[in-house]
Design a protein that fits this description.
The chain is of the alpha/beta class and 426 residues long. 29% of the residues lie in helices and 19% in strands. Helix 5 packs parallel to helix 6, helix 9 runs antiparallel to helix 10 and helix 12 packs parallel to helix 13. The longest helix is centred in the middle third of the chain and has 14 residues.
């Protein structure tokens, strides 16, 4: 795989990113985003939105009206091309969101190809997820639909470097494999990110007779998957519903149930989930979690506003701009975590990766070990005093996060109010 497994994606909802809510409104902030250490900009859907059954005043970007057009509220196709060029000029790649499971009820495809859609037993178009009332599902039993969708993907691949594919497991994996092959003929080293889905969602859809692929299946066509297979346990822990070890042990399980070169996109928040600052109000604890996000194996996924500790969830259905003065800007800390990740954490898929939880201390030790280096990090999530065991010889080490000396005594290191990170040559 040519995809580097330690990249950083920054997700932008164009409507709410700037006061203008346009492609042009994104461009002035690109140097600032690049300075965070971002490798890839992911734009939430850029296509026109449906009006029928619209949610809110502005509508969901995931109720797509036309796969081959630009949302006029964001600008023109030329404006989009200018934004893509500006992202490239700032040394980053650009990824767009593609929503291939469904369209708006008044989409171009509904009008031109009604036979390409899912129909309920009552003969009416609909969807297989009840609360998605502003969309209708496509039916991939129609071969002509495959051709149309793949042609659309190859068109956009002229301008962008990757796709984030919305609820991709609900679309047949054979379609994605064929689409990937077609896009590769247009642009090599393309990045495919799947919004894989929760276990409970897969089970529900399968019981309803719908397509719902597991993460193991999705790795046949995708480079990177969401970590929704474990993320519910993160939410459960911060909300007091399950132990830290339940979450950490499930992360360890990923090492043996997925392909050797698997990549997960690690996130604390996104457009579908609560803001991290809302879940974790204490800033020191939030910084510990942010360090953990970076020190985990895999991609890092940031959501616009995370760097200023935005705590208010922006709606998908109305104009609701990010409050860039929401809290203290933690960009410096984020960049530090990025630099440590890129410089010290091994990217070899053969490297040993292991996490050890300490429920009584609400802390975790992370280990990345290659033939050349050993990287050890300690994150403490509730500010408790105590010591944890680390695989280091007794002595003094430099903490990569703070620059301070850290002493290991009898194989133990004391918890601090910030994350610790140590790298040693073997």
């Amino acid at each position: 795989m040519s995809i580097q497994p330690n990249q950083v994606i920054y997700s932008i909802f164009v409507r709410n990113f700037s006061s203008e809510g346009t492609f042009q409104g994104v461009i002035p902030q690109l140097p600032r985003i690049k300075a965070l250490g971002v490798d890839i900009i992911w734009l939430l859907p850029i296509h026109p939105l449906g009006e029928e059954n619209r949610k809110g005043q502005a509508g969901s970007p995931y109720a797509n009206k036309d796969y081959r057009a630009i949302n006029p509220e964001y600008g023109t196709l030329e404006d989009f091309k200018v934004l893509c060029q500006a992202i490239h000029d700032n040394g980053m790649k650009v990824m767009i969101d593609v929503v291939y499971n469904h369209t708006s009820p008044d989409s171009v495809l509904v009008q031109e190809h009604p036979e390409w859609f899912f129909y309920r037993l009552d003969g009416k178009r609909g969807n297989q997820v009840g609360d998605w009332t502003d969309i209708v599902d496509l039916d991939y039993k129609n071969r002509a639909l495959w051709d149309y969708q793949i042609e659309s993907l190859t068109y956009w691949a002229q301008f962008v470097d990757g796709f984030r594919c919305d609820v991709a497991p609900l679309v047949p994996i054979e379609f994605w494999k064929e689409a990937r092959q077609a896009v590769a003929a247009v642009k090599q080293d393309f990045i495919w990110l799947s919004e894989s889905v929760e276990f409970s969602f897969i089970k529900l859809l399968r019981q309803a007779g719908a397509v719902a692929h597991s993460d193991c299946e999705m790795y046949q066509a995708f480079d990177v998957l969401y970590d929704y297979d474990v993320h519910y346990l993160f939410h459960g822990y911060v909300r007091g519903k399950n132990s830290l070890s339940e979450y950490i042990n499930r992360l360890n399980l990923q090492e043996v149930i997925y392909p050797k070169n698997y990549i997960k996109a690690r996130h604390l928040e996104n457009h579908d989930n609560p803001r991290a600052k809302h879940l974790i109000p204490d800033e020191q604890n939030l910084l510990q979690w942010t360090a953990f996000q970076y020190f985990e194996k895999g991609f890092v996924l940031l959501y616009n506003g995370q760097e200023v500790q935005e705590s208010t969830e922006q709606t998908l259905f109305d104009v609701d701009p990010v409050n860039w003065q929401a809290g203290r800007d933690i960009s410096t800390e984020i960049r530090r975590f990025h630099d440590i990740k890129k410089q010290y954490i091994p990217v070899d898929s053969s490297a040993r990766y292991e996490l050890t939880p300490y429920d009584e201390l609400d802390a975790v030790v992370l280990e990345h070990e290659s033939n050349e280096t050993l990287f050890v990090a300690v994150c403490s999530f509730k500010g408790k005093a105590g010591q944890v065991r680390v695989p280091l010889s007794d002595g003094k080490y430099t903490d990569l996060v703070s620059g301070e000396f850290v002493e290991v005594v009898d194989g133990l290191v004391a918890l601090r109010d910030h994350a610790l990170a140590i790298s040693v040559a073997k």
